[in-house]
Specification:
Structural class: mainly alpha
Largest sheet: none
Radius of gyration: 24 Å
Shape: elongated
Distance between the termini: 36 Å
Helix content: 55-70%
Number of domains: 2
């Protein structure tokens, strides 16, 4: 992929006197937790991607309705056949091998995912087909699939926390830092500040200029990647007030050693949680 995005991309742009990425989106990789069923559901999501389009009744609008609790319309037989044909014949999909429609190439290792979705004594290819094609025949969205479309990491809370810490240590690398920061909930920051200050959040959240409140907003900006609007919703303030709070605390951190120590303690609490 790196060669495709660099060498080929450069040649393509020069030959056509253009600039910018050749492909719609830059290449990205997403770590997936190897424990439990995360990898299995992720493979289902990938194999279903070519079929989840408007023309087959599985577009964004239809899936959005399903997520909101609306029952999907039952697909007719012709539509089901089109879905299955698309699934089984998509040129770049490994599903035909996983489903047993073609011989598995030597480089493709299917056993791990077959094992995860298979009951003992049942043909793993048939079992995998039943999982995937059952969804297409019924037209019902699997809840676990709907949460993977915009993820930067897939797995348990412990796995997400571990990977997040490692990624944020990287410097000078395109890691989509803001999205990784967002994986730290602001509620964790609030809990850490409460522990540090020895007071409940509701008791000091409305105190203008309170060091703990301002420190929480600063951490929310720096460590959670939240926007001013998002932070303002937690303290019932406008963007301008949150921005002023961040400017104030940033300046104080350079001059106030005690505040700086409290911020370091706050970060330590977050690291330990």
């Amino acid at each position: 992929m790196q060669w495709l995005n660099t060498s080929y991309g450069t040649w393509f742009n020069v030959s056509r006197n253009r600039s910018g990425p050749v492909f719609q989106n830059r290449f990205k990789s997403i770590p997936v937790d190897n424990e439990g069923s995360w990898a299995f559901y992720c493979s289902m999501y990938i194999h279903l991607n070519p079929v989840r389009i408007k023309g087959l009744g599985l577009g964004k609008l239809e899936r959005s309705r399903e997520k909101s609790g609306m029952l999907p319309e039952d697909p007719d037989a012709e539509l089901v056949l089109k879905r299955l044909e698309c699934l089984r014949t998509h040129r770049w999909s490994s599903y035909p091998a996983y489903g047993g429609y073609v011989e598995k190439p030597a480089w493709l290792y299917c056993e791990e995912l077959w094992w995860r979705g298979n009951e003992e004594g049942i043909d793993p290819r048939k079992e995998y087909r039943d999982w995937i094609e059952g969804y297409l025949r019924q037209g019902i969205e699997e809840p676990k699939l709907s949460s993977l479309s915009s993820a930067v990491v897939i797995g348990s809370a412990a796995f997400v926390s571990k990977v997040r810490k490692e990624v944020l240590k990287l410097k000078g690398v395109d890691t989509n830092e803001r999205e990784w920061k967002r994986l730290l909930p602001f509620t964790d920051v609030i809990s850490a500040v409460e522990k540090l200050k020895g007071e409940v959040w509701d008791d000091f959240v409305d105190r203008h200029g309170d060091w703990a409140r301002d420190l929480a907003l600063y951490a929310g900006r720096e460590r959670c990647g939240l926007s001013l609007t998002e932070l303002g919703e937690f303290v019932n303030c406008r963007n301008q007030s949150v921005a002023q709070s961040n400017m104030r605390i940033r300046k104080r951190l350079k001059q106030d050693q005690e505040l700086k120590q409290n911020y370091e303690k706050l970060l330590n609490i977050l690291e330990e949680s």
